[in-house]
Specification:
Order of helices and strands: HHEEHHEHEHEHHEEHHHHHHHHHHHHHHH
Strand content: 5-15%
CATH architecture of the largest domain: Orthogonal Bundle
Number of strands: 7
Shape: globular
CATH class of the largest domain: Mainly Alpha
Distance between the termini: 34 Å
Strand order of the largest sheet: 3-2-1-4-5
Length: about 550
């Protein structure tokens, strides 16, 4: 097989085709022909423009497997569209996507381009700047989403500082509006959420099926070689890449998850294991966020399987809540708050300082005044905490871990210790294959660390060792005892938990969901409090002293 560049060149348009077709820009996260402008006319009347930008890839040290997943899907999508009869302009550029489009439009020349409204804020500001410089672009709604801005505003109204945004309100409204898992205006099963039923630890049964692996073809092997050579200092491992990179393989991965994983998803959704890292999670979030698998298709498939008795209602509802609820809710909140910049600017103005001017600089809310640097353990330096080291090793290897390990191990520890929410957000952004600004900033600055002061969560999602011990087997293989909170061999999570509450009592002490733990904290003796503080300080000091690897995150660039 010829190299990719030679294959895609065969679909390059003639001058007549440049002027006679509808040209659509396909960004780096919307590889679908099943909805949107590509689906609106025959392939024989369609042309697509794709830009492979090294500037974007260098903006952060994105996980090597994220780059392989994205670029290989991008290249395969271009070839798939060429095979359908579309004409393809696939442009390799050292510049940003928007700058490359402006250059192409001027040089070819290329008529007005259509694109769906970008999901990522970063791409939106790039495109806006290019339009101001003369790019002829028509924006149309992104129909891969399940809800509109109006849907969100109908529930919450326009963004207002100090207002709390609870996902459940939005999710219920979406269920009622769409009729998904509804019967005559009532939720099937008598309630909207079965979240309380997903808290079982996994004890080895039912058996977890082996997920399919997709061996790299020649196109993907070429991308792997490119990433290895061009981005050698980026985060993570590039070895053993086996994720879907074609539409056919993405469909097969979803079919497997639907049949073999979703029936057992709900009971063990929050479980964690060091010997079964995936459990019954689909691991398809990266493909969903690339547009390879459409949320509407997934929900329809799950609802149908539930109706036919192939998936229990609780599992179907739990999965749908993640897609129809959290995913949609978080992207709306990100857009309404300008990536939390409205919140951050409010804080900055109150403190008498100027808001950040760099449009790529992330918002820095920190309601709990957390500012310690993220320690080397997040880059793979062993900490001695088996849960942390296991999850970080998985992220380095795969660029993925499921949502409870993200929330209750990685983010929990960072929040308890007072590590910088912005640094943690940046780490998630480049470490995970499914991370984009609209999902990572709201989830980490909001739900995971409470940096937004309760905009998205009614309390911080923190716990001591008891939760990790209950929901996982991590503690069975750790040097620390989860049942001891102080002294030699004690697990630091518990001491960190109590000192976190003590340290933040002025902010959290009146939180209605924290009254029980604060009552317990206030009953502790002065001697025990001193011991807890000492154990927590030792843990934080130990983590802060771990030597950093030579690798350092790159400073975001605006090119």
């Amino acid at each position: 097989m010829a190299p990719f560049a030679e294959q895609v060149q065969l679909a390059y348009p003639t001058p007549e085709e440049l002027q006679g077709r509808r040209w659509i820009f396909v960004p780096y996260d919307r590889f679908t022909d099943r909805t949107g402008p590509i689906a609106e006319q025959p392939a024989s009347e369609t042309g697509i423009v794709i830009v492979e930008s090294t500037a974007k890839a260098h903006r952060r040290p994105y996980h090597k497997k994220k780059l392989v997943l994205l670029i290989s899907n991008m290249r395969h999508f271009a070839l798939e569209q060429a095979a359908r009869g579309c004409k393809v302009i696939y442009h390799f550029s050292e510049h940003s996507h928007a700058q490359a489009l402006l250059q192409l439009q001027r040089e070819l020349p290329l008529p007005k381009i259509t694109m769906m409204e970008p999901a990522e804020r970063e791409l939106r500001i790039d495109i806006d700047a290019a339009i101001q410089a003369g790019l002829k672009m028509k924006m149309v709604p992104d129909t891969t989403w399940l809800s509109t801005t109006e849907d969100f505003l109908n529930v919450f109204g326009a963004y207002k500082a100090g207002r709390a945004y609870v996902m459940d309100r939005f999710y219920r409204a979406q269920r009622q509006q769409t009729g998904i898992l509804m019967d005559k205006g009532k939720p099937i099963g008598g309630k909207f959420s079965f979240d309380a039923e997903n808290r079982k630890p996994y004890k080895g049964q039912p058996r977890i099926p082996t997920p399919p692996a997709f061996a790299p073809d020649l196109v993907t092997k070429e991308v792997i070689a490119l990433v290895r050579e061009t981005y050698p200092h980026h985060f993570g491992s590039i070895e053993n890449f086996d994720s879907p990179t074609t539409q056919q393989d993405a469909d097969a991965a979803w079919a497997f998850a639907l049949e073999h994983l979703l029936p057992h998803f709900d009971p063990y959704e929050d479980a964690m294991r060091d010997d079964e890292l995936q459990l019954f999670h689909s691991r398809l979030s990266g493909l969903i966020n690339l547009g390879r698998i459409l949320p509407a298709q997934m929900i329809a498939d799950v609802e149908r399987a539930c109706t036919e008795g192939r998936i229990p209602l609780a599992s179907a509802e739990g999965f749908i809540r993640q897609i129809l609820g959290w995913r949609e809710f978080m992207r709306h909140l990100h857009q309404q708050t300008d990536g939390y910049r409205l919140l951050a600017d409010t804080v900055a103005q109150e403190e008498g300082s100027m808001p950040q001017q760099d449009p790529y600089a992330g918002a820095t809310p920190s309601a709990l005044s957390a500012s310690l640097p993220l320690p080397a353990a997040y880059w793979g330096v062993k900490s001695g905490l088996h849960c942390l080291d296991t999850v970080v090793a998985q992220v380095i290897e795969e660029g993925w871990s499921h949502h409870i390990t993200r929330l209750m191990v990685l983010s929990n520890l960072a929040t308890l210790c007072g590590f910088s929410p912005r640094q943690l957000t940046n780490w998630f952004w480049f470490a995970y294959v499914d991370a984009y600004d609209w999902v990572v900033e709201t989830n980490v600055l909001g739900m995971s660390t409470y940096a937004d002061g309760g905009l998205t969560a009614t309390k911080p999602y923190v716990s001591g060792a008891a939760y990790i011990n209950k929901m996982s087997n991590f503690c069975d293989h750790c040097q620390y005892d989860p049942k001891r909170s102080t002294g030699e061999g004690s697990c630091p999570f518990t001491a960190l938990y109590w000192t976190f509450l003590e340290r933040n009592e002025a902010v959290l002490g009146n939180n209605f969901r924290l009254q029980m733990p604060y009552t317990t904290l206030r009953r502790k003796s002065p001697i025990e409090l001193v011991q807890l503080r000492a154990r927590a300080d030792d843990a934080i000091t130990h983590l802060q002293r771990l030597p950093h690897l030579k690798y350092e995150p790159l400073t975001p660039q605006s090119n």
